[in-house]
Structure formats: structure tokens, C-alpha cells
Amino acid sequence: MTELLAPPSDVDTGHEIGRARRRKEDAKLVHGQTMWTDNITVPGMAHFALLRSPMAHARITAIDVSGARALPGVIAAFSGADLVEQLGSLPTAWPVTPEMVSPPHPPLAVDEVRYVGDAVAVVVARDRYAAADALEAISVDYDPLPAVVDLEAALADGAPLVHADAGTNRCFVWPFSGGDYEAARAAAEVVVARRFVQQRLLPTAMEPRAVVVAPVAASGEFTVYSATQIPHVLRVMLALTTGISEQKIRVIAPDVGGGFGSKLDVYAEEVIGLILARTLGRPVKWTESRSEGYQATIHGRGQIQDIEIAAKRDGTILGLKVDLLADMGAYLQLVTAGVPLLGAFMYPAIYKMDAYSFTCTGVFTTKTPTDAYRGAGRPEATYAVERIVDELAHELGRDPVDLRRQNWIRHEEFPYTTIAGLTYDSGNYEAATAKALALFDYDGLRAEQAARRARNDPVQLGIGVSTFTEMCGLAPSRVLGSLSYGAGGWEAAGVRVLPTGKVEVVTGSSAHGQGHETAWSQIAADLLGVPFEDVEVIHGDTQSSPKGMDTYGSRSLVVGGIALHLAAGKVVDKARRIAAHLLEASVDDVQFEKGTFSVKGSPEAKLTIQEVALATFAAHNLPDGMEPSLDSDAVFDPENFSYPHGTHLCAVEVDTETGRPTIRSYVCVDDVGSVINPLIVEGQVHGGLAQGIAQALYEEAVYDDDGNLVTGTMADYLVPSAADLPNFVTDRTETPATSNPLGVKGVGEAGTIASTPAVINAIVDALRPFGVDDMAMPATPERVWRALHGGRQGGVGDGGAR
Amino acid sequence: MIPPRVEYAAPDSVAEAVSVLAEAGEDAKVLAGGQSLLPVLRLRMAYPSVLVDLGRIDGLRGVRDEGASIVVGGMTRHSDVIDDPLVRRHAALLAAATATVADPQVRHRGTFGGALAHADPAGDLPAVAVALDAEMVAEGPGGRRTIPASEFFLDYLQTALDPGEILCEVRIPKLDDGWSAHYEKFSRTAQAWAVVGVAAAVRRSNGTIAEARVGLTNMSTTPVRARGVEAALTGKPADAATVAEAAMHAGEGANPPSDLGGQADYRSHLATVLTRRALSRAAHIG
Questions:
Q1: How far is A147 from chain B (nearest CA, A)?
Q2: For chain A, which has fewer Cβ within 10 Å, the N-terminal or C-terminal residue?
Q3: Rounded mean pLDDT of A255-273?
């Protein structure tokens, strides 16, 4: 569907937007010329390493770092107590209720450790090897305390406490409702309830986390290089946490190799690095190892969902009730508590109903903190609702697509305000579903399924449906404020027109694999009428891109891209006035098309935008009072979220002898509104599908009863590769967003949000004849096999239901 | 993932390697392809004093014909084993199983001898060695000796090699006319270790199974020779019923582990299913 080799730009066509360009950022990636944080070496740089707790919960009764200090190559060693005054407490930006328990979060534990991997001491040495060796010379005495692993046990009376001072493991209770669910339930003829478990996931970005902090000689300034998604937010938070003035901190996110939310945070190592650089007066570096990252980088998901759907016998959905337990882990990271709230609004999904009741309880455990992971709350919600709708269809004896069709918002009903209070601006579920059904050969596969069932084939076939929508493009600042989030959701952009007519685009969005440099160049090229190659995109440095809210929540294009659209519009407005002056015409008579200003009715009177740029630079002949600059900035604060949607269909073959589920075909038709670059969209969808399928079939962070992360390396935590995934059939419908001038919707998380329930629905569908009506995730062959042999969900008591 | 300090030696000959090992004592470790050892070092699960790298000893690489057997050098890389014409012709089971080891990067570094000496019961090649009645040729301070595969694997990650010995080469009796083979591996992801693997070689003759060799991966702390399965096949008609009946004996003598890869009862069940499938493929049944 996409042209792989895009022709060079042709300004005359004015059609950069929509072109399947290969990404301009990829050449350096494939040539190994990428500037990862770990590739950065600053003169005089030392390396630091962290000693981490081997126990989930314990009191530190003694700690002695003198052995480390005595070793060759070691520059310094500190315990948590040594640095407690300087390190402060790591920030959390989302106090979801006024009563929320928000315990102190020291970057280095001082008297108590609360998860395996909690850092207790730091060594600075001349090289990584000396630092790692010196960790073994630190002695720590731990007095064990009870681990708190299970969410429900954590809430029981008399449960051991993660934070004794808090007096409870209950972090918050957040209720939300629309309509009267009890009335809906009373009126219902059918009620279906299920408990779903969202297992913990380990975000496994290709590039591990890393940080380099360099003092700038004698100025009191610090340059912080970090593998982060959020250089701008990090700068503010480092200033607030350490007391170092914000203008003295420059944060650079160099090339960043993926994040998926795990780099949307303010981490202990960033604060520790800054304090070490200040204390020692020299640059320091830290790079996590993969197994270290699995303990010390945030985890995703970790929820128990009790969901109930009430309906009439004719299939009309009346209401939905959700009771959620959300695992915070041991501390609150940047947006930990807010993640389930992002899901709260999405349980009603694409369905019309009269009542919705939601309650979320945040729970502390002695495990690695959780936080945003690709989709952040919305995959969990989408999974639960798409699973329960399939269960309702089964209960009613209805085809799952047919039941959805009966209840979804019809295209002529947009804009539509859901029972959760969101107003979906646009969508066409009918069109996406029709296209997906045709590509999938839905009827043919149903016939094959029936035949396999009839002949007791050892390989059974199941079909899974997921008609998802999500809210992304975070976010309207007013809405974030009403949810008690600590910041806004705007984004900034700047356009600088250089004397030669070349263009620099400055964005506050912070790309870490998405392809901003290509997409932003395409937008700027079309809006300014300049060649694609003439645009340079600058991002990820608080000095060169001083204002931004960074990249997460599928927000870059739908917020940052619109800011660029507005800034480019200002450039054209300024240039039009200068062109009119130079062409001795009225501004109203000057038209702009494909990079050229011309006077209506006098086609020979024209100036290119490059000519106007040079004239502006010279400034010899500008309108009175006009500043000699075309440069323009804009900040865009959206009025609404973005609501991409799509229909995903998955066919799974289940080998009933071994239990192995194998995806036979996967079709998705996504509607992400208008598209800037179809190739980038397709890449985002493919990667998203892989991550969502990974949750369904492969990935699970397993803790034992003592709070040890058992899946501590990539040998045990199974991340699928291309060899484990099917060929994806992807297609799109385009229903432009009405909430922004480009008509675009977010795409970064869509595949992940949609795919997990499609896969599990397919497996359950295959196993219905065996009495199976649910399947724990990941659906390992062993779990499927146990389900086939009497366990209702398989894998009961095997650690999946933490 | 920073390994501890370790000395490194790269001798040019087996004799020199043996003497370096003898000098270093029990804390020395032999480095072959490093695909298991280096992760162990980086996780600081072992603190050897010296690594004795066999990579510069040319005589340990390659495959040669010795009449009734082929001899595979211990330092022959998996990727070379897979493509070797002698292996493909005379030890097809070894080629088939080696092709399933980990991923291409590992197969271009990892070695046959290293995989056997590591003796990971989840590794694919020990079961093949046991099934094929391979003989391990080791050299130590006392000279060369030959250890049958059936006596080589003692326990989890433990072999009959003395600390001062090097596994130099492996002699594999040829299975030629009438033999065919299949390695049936069941793993969670493409590059993951086997939950269970079944190495099967079968000689058909006049519609019957004249001989069979079956080895099981990850069904005990050592590779398992499924002699009960072999006995149930020998002399029987080469058909689905024979294979299905024989596969029921797969769990005999096994003591499967319970771990993240699967519980013991599931592994036992898998062994039966996979043995039937491996035999069916090897014997071209069904």
C-alpha cells in the first residue's frame, strides 16, 4: 500500500503531506552513526554504579561504603544517608485525589528498601569496571520486612505495610460515574461479569536508559544528557527536586532509542548524576544494563479488573461497571497514579449506554514502581471492554461483530458525547469494520471454524474481534487540570526562515524513534512551499528548543504538529505583508501558493518565499514598523483529545495437543484521520501490534512470593521478535479529525491498544467448545493446555494473577 | 552486566591449553564460543581466575571422515556444523538440531564442543549426542581419553570432564542407509531454549522400523535416552499406531523440571506428543 521509494520533493505538486517518504533519520541509524547517550564521552568523565537492594522489603540496619572507597580507581562512594539532604525526593506530578498517599521517594534509600532494585549506595570510579567491582566491597545489613506482592492481600486488614508511616497500602480511591448503573443493572435481562488480570510488563526499549551530567566550567551550569522522552519536563523537575535553578540546567535528549513511556519519567539516576556532578565537580555517566533496567525502570500495566456489563436480551447494552485495583509498586513515579485514570474514560469505548460506574483503588506493593507504558491505561480498558463484549455476545448467542454493530455509535451520530463525558469528534466504525471483514474473509474463516469443530480437528480455529477507540493527543490543559495533573498539555513550535530561504523547525516534541524529522519536514514543506530537503527539524535540547511538553500519549502530531501548522501560518502572514510591500500591492490582493506570492490579476508580479526571506534579512525595504524577521512561534493547546479507532480481526489456530496458539492471520483497519506519512503510520501500527500481541502471548513480569522479579533477564522475559509474529495486513479508512486543522489523529499507541483483546478473544473463541470462557495472559501454550484440561482459565495459581 | 576481572589466555595448541589449565587450577574456565559463559560472567554468577580461549587452536575446528564415524572438532561453530556435507550426510539429526539452536548470531559464535561441555539440559545438542551414541574425546594432563555420551552428562551443568580436561572432538557413528532423522523442538519464542525437545532417528526397512534412536531435551537434569520408546519401535510396522504407542513411553526415566518454561506434568505430556511427532516426521509417517 505504500511506495517505498518516494521521489524527490517537487514543490510544484505541493503534496508532501500524504507522501510515503522514507524517514530522513534512518540513514544514521543504519550506518551506526547515532548519538546515543552512552556514546557520549566528556573530558574527565567518571562512571557511577548503583548498589541495589536484593530484598523486596527490609530495614537497612548498617551500611558501610568504606571498602569501596579504598579500591583503586574509585573516586567516591556514598550511601543514601550521605546524600539525603541533597537528593530530595523524586517527583510525582499526578495527585489524583487530595487524599492520595504520596510517600517520600528518596533516590537512594536511606533506612528502608521497598523493592528489589531499590538503590542503596553509589560508587563513582574512573571506569565502569572499577565502579562495578567496588559495589561488591560495600557491606549492607538488612533486617527483612514482609514483602507485599499480591494486590488484594495488600488491602486486607492487618496486611504488612509498604510505607508504615502511611498506615495503609491504599494509595487512593478514585470513583467516577455517568448515569445510574444500579438502575441499569436492575433493568437488565443479562448481566455478565468477569475478572481480568493485566499482568505486569517490562518496557524493553531498544536503547537502555543512560545519563551523562557535565558541569559547565565555573558557570554553575549543568548539562544533563539523558535517554529521555521528556527533556523539558525533566529540566523543570530536576530544578524542583534539587533546588538548582532551572536556568542553570540544560537537558539534552540525544538520539533516543525508544521509550514506550518508560523514559517518560524522572529517575533516581538522573537526580543522582546531577548531584554527583555538583559534589565532585566533574562529569559523570551511568548506563543501565538490561537486567538492572528490568528492576529499576518502571513497569507497565499491573491491574486486576472486575468488570460487569448489563444488557437487554435483544443485545442492547445498558451499562458497565468497573472495579479496578491498580498496582503502584513501591513508590509513585511521575504519573503512576494517573495511568488508570487515562483508562477510566475509555471503558465505554465505541458503545452507547446509559450508565457507567468506575472505581479505581491504587495499591502499594513492594515491587518496582509502575508508570505509563504504551497506551497507559487505555490498553487495559480496551482489553476489558472488548473481552466482556465478546462474552456478552456468547451469552446472547450473537455474532460478536453483529452485537458491536448494534451498540456502537453510528457515523452520523458524531460528534457524540459518551457516558464517560468525552466528546468523540469523528469516526466511522461501520466503514473500518466493513473493510476489515472483507480483507479478513470473516465468513470464510467462520465456515472453516465450524468444519474444524465438526470433525474434532486437533487444531481448532478461533476468531477474535477488537473494535477499539482511544483518547490520545494528550491533552487539553484544562482537562488535565480538572484531573489534578501537575502540568498542561500544550505544545510549542517555532519556524525560523534563514536568509537563504532554508528553514529550521523547532519543536518542543521530543522524538525518540517516531519520525518527527521526516513528518515535520513534510508539513513545513507544504505549508511554506519549500523543498522537503530544505527543512531541518531541531528538537530534544532545552537550549535550542527551549519550550515544550515532549512526547508521549500519541501527542506529537496532533498537538506539536498543529503548533507547527500555526507557526508556519504566521510566517506566511508576515511574508505576505512584506511581499505585498515589495510588489506594491495590497496585502489582500497577494495570494500564496506553492512557495510563491503573486498579485491577483497580475501573474507576472510575484516573489518566491526565498526571495522574501532574503529581502527580510537585508531589511532595506520593509513596511513601516515591521520587524525584520519572518520567524514565528506558536503554542497549541488542544480543545479536545484525539480519537483514533479501528477494527482488528485475528485468527488463531490452537494446537489442542500442545496448547500452542499460533496467529494465522491478522487484519487491522485503523482510522487515524488524515495521514502525513503513510509509511510512518504503517510502521507505528506494526510496532504497536507487536507490543500488544506480546502482552497477549509472551510477556509477563513474574514475581515470587518474596517479591523477587523472577523474569529478571531477557532469557526469562520473552520479548517476541519478527520470527514469532505473523504477517500483518494493515489498511486504513480516513475520517479526518474535526478538532485540528490537519485532520490528524494519534497513531503511536493504537496498535498496542487494539491488538491484545483481538488475540485473546480469538483464543477463547477457539476453546469455547471445551467449556473455556477466559484465558489468562500471557496465553502460554501451557496455560491453554491447562484450560483445555479443566482449568477454566488455565494457569490458576501460577503467578499470573498478581 | 559488567564482568569481574579475569585473566585471559589464548594458547595455540591443545597441549599448551592443557598446561595453562593445569597451572591455573580449578578456578580456570575454558572459553569456547562464549555464548553461555559470557552471560554468566556478565551477571557475575561466576568468578573464574582465568579464561582459556580455545579460539586460536585450528586443529579443534572442522569435520573429518573416519570410516565408520565422523569426527566433529569441539570448536566447530554451529553454523559450520549445519552446513557441513559430512554432517548432513552421516549425522542428519545433528544438522537438524543444530539449526534450531538460538538465533543466527549465536550459531555463528557458539560451538558444538562448548554446547556439550556446558551440559545445559535445555540445550539441544546433548540429547543428540546421547541419541547418536557419540563419543567425547577429551585431553588432559593424563593424555587423551574417550568418554561415551551415555557417561558424559552427570547432572545439571556437570560432565565427566575433569577440570583440567578439554573436550577436543566428538566422534559420531555414521547413520547412513535407510536412516532419517528429525529434531522436534518446542520453545516459547523462536530463539528461546526448548521447553522440551525430541531428537529422533529412525531406520526403516521393508515397511518396518528396524532401528530407532531417541533423545530428549530438558526432560531431566541430563539429556534422556528414551530407550523405552526405541524398544517399542524396533521391528514394528512403520505406521501411526506404532509411533503413537511407542511415544507413550517417552516419559520413562525422565525427571522433568518445573520452572518458568513449564511445570513437570506439562513437560511429560509434551514429551509424548513431541516424540510422536518427531518419529512421524523422521519415519515419514502420516
A1: 21
A2: N
A3: 98
All structural domains of chain A with their residue ranges: 26-34+490-636, 45-147+204-296, 429-470+643-802
Residues B154 and B192 in one domain: no
**What is the rounded average pLDDT of the residues A666-695?**
98
Residue A771 CB: number of other CB atoms within 10 A?
A: 10
- Which residue type does A360 have? C
Reported as a pLDDT band with limits 50, 70 and 90, residue A5 is very low
Q: What is the pLDDT of residue A10?
A: 62
Radius of gyration of chain A (CA): 28
Task: State pLDDT tens for residues A485-514.
Answer: 999 999 999 999 999 999 999 999 999 999
Judged by CB atoms closer than 8 Å, whether chains meet at B1 and A781 is answered as no
* Domain span including residue B157: 61-173
CB pairs under 8 A between A and B: 58
A7, pLDDT greater than 80:
no
| Class of the domain covering A429-470+643-802 | alpha beta
Rg of the Cα atoms in chain B: 19
Name the architecture of domain A45-147+204-296. Answer: Alpha-Beta Complex (3.90)
- Cα distance from A794 to chain B (closest Cα, Å)? 12
Within a domain: B94:
yes
Residue A561 has pLDDT above 80, yes or no: yes
B2 belongs to a structural domain: no
Name the minimum distance, in Å, from the CA of A498 to any CA of chain B: 47
Residue B70 and residue B168 share a domain = yes
pLDDT tens digits, A749-762: 999 999 999 999 99
Q: Which of B189, B266, B270 sits opposite A724 (nearest CB)?
A: B189
| DSSP 8-state code for residue A410 | P
Average pLDDT of the residues in A573-582: 98
The answer to whether the Cβ–Cβ distance between A715 and B193 falls below 8 Å is yes
The shortest CB-CB distance from A718 to any of B4, B186, B192 is to B192
Q: Which of A403, A458, A420 is nearest to A192 (CA)?
A: A403
- Measured CA to CA in angstroms, residue A206 lies from A152, A203, A259 at distances of 34, 10, 8
Residue A793 has pLDDT above 70, yes or no: no
Contact B193 A660 (CB under 8 A): no
Q: Do A702 and B260 touch (CB under 8 A)?
A: yes
Do B105 and B184 have their domain in common? no
B186 contact residues in A (CB cutoff 8 A) = 658, 660, 781
CA dist A791 and A29 (Å) reads 47
d(CA A643, CA A638): 13
Interface of chain B toward chain A, CB-CB under 8 angstroms? 1-2, 4-5, 39, 42-43, 186, 188-193, 195, 260, 262-263, 266, 269-270, 273-274
* Contact across the interface for A721 and B270, Cβ inside 8 Å: no
Provide the pLDDT for residue A796: 37
DSSP H or E stretch at residue B51: strand B50-53
